[in-house]
Every structure is written in structure tokens, then in C-alpha cells.
Amino acid sequence: MPAGLPENVYHMYWLKKVKFLMETDTYVTWVLFAVEEGKFEYQIGENYGVAEFGDVVVCPPQIAFHRNVLTPLSFHSITFTLPEGEPQQLKPLLAQRKITLTQIRRLSENYTSLRQADQQLSYSSDNQKLKQHYLADIWLMIAQQALESPDTGPLLEHDELIRDVAIYLIHHAHETIEIRDVAHQFGMTPVQLIRRFKNGYGVNPLQYLTTFRVKQACRLLLTTEWTLDVIAGTCGYENGFYLSRVFRKTMGMSPSEFRKQNRY
């Protein structure tokens, strides 16, 4: 196994769970909850949050993991060990407990493959190797995110303006947004905004906004029967045709294909 990667102990896929069997649990290994559909709230030490599609929640060994289902939850539970210890470069990101991964197409593909492996109900070495591979790829996404924005935490503590821009983008994601208008509102030129935003979040404002919108579209495709035009309007796009173009470019498949493959 490559150095620094986690070693899978046990993987379980849970479908539309309405309640955790235990609202609080303490594991002897690391544990990762990766959400495909629905929402749950959690508290790990002093860290509280709500996780949904695109989020992975990581809890270290011997720390109480409090959790509560908010909406019917489909998720992957993976217990794992870190044979070489917690990687130094990942400590700031792992300390946040919840990590929102931006490569949602790659993440969705890993989830689909993990789910298919789980449905085989086999503990063969080949099946376990497959699960190990998908866990490693999720871990590599976490590592890549940490490396692409190593100074995110310290920077955003001081660059409150850029944090305010990100909050503005999320709150207005359902509206038509022009980056030049956002820059003007926050007293910057578009070039200044893009540079400072990328320094803080590792992506430019448009990429950040698109990722959020597509993530919302994924959630609505899985949890509602809404037409693509209705989902498009909710996610800030003019019509379903335009959303479909953006969705396919981001996810590598059409919205209808995503809905068909991921609804059970």
C-alpha cells in the first residue's frame, strides 16, 4: 500500500436511514461518513455541523461521535486505520472534521463503485481491494484539497472580506450573478477579487459558485421529482438546457443520467 494512505477496516453502505442506532458512538479506529443523500447533524469534540452530499465527516479514534439524522440519509460508513499516523499536511483540514470535496464528479463515481462493491455481499480479497482503492481515492481528494489551499485556514481568519464574498455567493446562488458586480459591491476590481478568492479557497469565485450550484442540483435531482427547468431556476440558471450543459461538463453525465443511476 502506498505510504500515507488509510487502510480500510470495514465499509458499510446505509440506504435512506431515518435514525442512527446509536446517537453517540466512540470508535477504536478512524471513521469516515460520506453522504450520498440526505442530511445529518454531528458533533465531534467542539466541532458541530450539518453534512450533506459532497461532505465527508471524519472522526478520530477514541473521540465521541454524536450524530442525528435530519432527513433520510444514504451514506457510506468507513472505518480505517492510518498505519503511519495522521499526515502532518492534513492535520488542519482533518481538524475541521467536515470536509466539503469540490470534485463532485469523481466523488460520485467513487460512491457508485463502493455501493456496487457493497451489494456483492462478498468479503473476498478482490472485493476488499476494490473498496480499499475507492477509499484511497477519496483520501487523495482530501489530500489534494489540502495541498491546493494550504493556507486557507490562516488566510481566511485575516481575510474576512473574502469570507464574506463566499457567504454572499452561497446566499445568492439562486440568482443571476456577475463576478464584476460582486467585485464592485465589495470594493475590488474583478482581477483583485479573483486573485484573493483563489488564494483563500483554491478556486476562483465562478468555480466556487458552479460547484455549489451543481451540488444543489444533485441534491434536488435525488430528493425531488422536479423538472430540470424548475431545478435550474432554483440553482440560479436560466433554464434546464443551460443547467444541463454545466452539469454535464462538471459531472460527465446528464442530469437525467445522474438521477437514474443514483436513485434507488
Automatic annotation (TrEMBL):
Residue ranges constituting the HTH araC/xylS-type domain according to the UniProt record: 163-261
SUPFAM superfamilies, per the entry: Homeodomain-like (SSF46689)
Keyword Translocase on entry: no
Molecular function in Gene Ontology: DNA-binding transcription factor activity; sequence-specific DNA binding
Keywords, in A-Z order: DNA-binding, Transcription, Transcription regulation
Protein name: HTH araC/xylS-type domain-containing protein
Organism name: Paenibacillus contaminans
